[in-house]
Every structure is written in C-alpha cells, then in structure tokens.
Amino acid sequence: MLEAIEKLLILQDRDRKIRRVQQELGHIGPERETLRTKAATAQTQLDAAKNRIKQIESERKRLELDVEAKKTQIEKYANQQLQTRKNEEYRALAHEIDLCKADIVKIEDQEIVLMEQGEAAQKEITRATQEANEAKKLMDSQVAQLDQREANLKKELAELQTGRAELAAAVEETARTRYERLLRNRGDNVIVGVDNGVCGGCHMKLPPQVLVTCRSQQEIVACSNCGRILYYTRDMALAATE
User: Which of 42, 90, 161, 162 gives 20 to 30 Å between its CA and that of 108?
Assistant: First the structure.
C-alpha cells in the first residue's frame, strides 16, 4: 500500500472519530432542552392546579357572603312584617322572604358543586405535585450527567483535533488537498477499498484499467464514478465475481 494512502487512512479514521464526537455533542443540547421542557410543563400543570384551587376558594367565599346577605335580607323583611298592619304588605314581604330562601338553596347547591370541584382539584394538585417533583429530580440528575458527558466530549474533541493537525501535516500536500476536498463533498468516507471489482464508496463497477492501476499501488487512484480515493489489499477480491 502506498505510504500516502496509509497516512490518509489514519487521517480518515481520526476524522471519523471527530465527526462522531461532534454528532454526540450536537445531540446533548436538544436532550437537555427536552428534559427542561418536560420539567417546566409539569410545573406549569401544578401551578394551574393551584390556581384552580384558589379560584374555587374565592368563589366559595363569595357564595358564603351571598348567603349571609340573603339571611340579612330575610331578617330585614321579617322585622318589617312585624311592623306592618297591612295584609297586602305582609304577604309581599313573605313572598320576598320565600324568594331569598329559594336563592339560598340555589347558592348552597352551587357550594356543593364547588366542594366537589375542590376535592377533584386537590387530587389533581397531589398528582401534579408528584409529577413535577419527579420531573425535576429526573431533569437535575440527567442534566448533570449530560453536562459531564458534554465536558468529556469537548475534551476528547480538543485532543482529537490537536492530533489531527499533526496527522494532516504528515500527508503530502497534493494528496492532503485532494482528500480535504473530497471530505467536504463526500463526508468521512473518502478513502475506500476495492472489493469484487466495485468501489467501496459508491459501489459502482470499476473499469479494468482502474483495477490494474490500483493493484499496482504505484500512484493514487480515484473512482471514475464518485472520485473517491481507492486502495487495495491482498485480502480483497480485486476482480468482480461472476
């Protein structure tokens, strides 16, 4: 194998490791944000449940005041009944008292509904509190793990990139320039083997002359279809299988 190919294979291996680390780093931010979003959503649901309890309690107190107001009105009408001597006025006051009593019954029915809603809301708070606590605990734990993983990956990436510069410098400039161009266009699968007469990159059949030149290992050979740099080792089947 050509020395340039050997060096390029080593460089390609380093580039693949760099890309892997970069991809892993790229996933950490979204994973962390997902955890935080879940925790925030759980907290929002808990806050909504607490607000619902406050609304119910406020409404219940308003209804209590309404009942007291109706009772005060009944006392007022009853006192007026004691003072009047006219049957018509007495009956009118009695009618107003009956209306107030009917209103009190309706209000008390509303209070019962609110009590039931309050019980349901309290259960919702209990559930939402548990979910919010679990989501926060999970977020804190996993975010800490992600932070540590991110720090480790950044350290690994820095080491890989530093080492890459040394590996790249060891490759002859023309070959390195060609490799870098292919790397930008083809990703990290640039130096590929020949097996059964096809390119290991695009998997297209190679012309016989390309195979012969590749086997001679006297110069850098490119795939006539995709332009990737080809190499051949003795363990590879050079000719296409029939």
Answer: 90
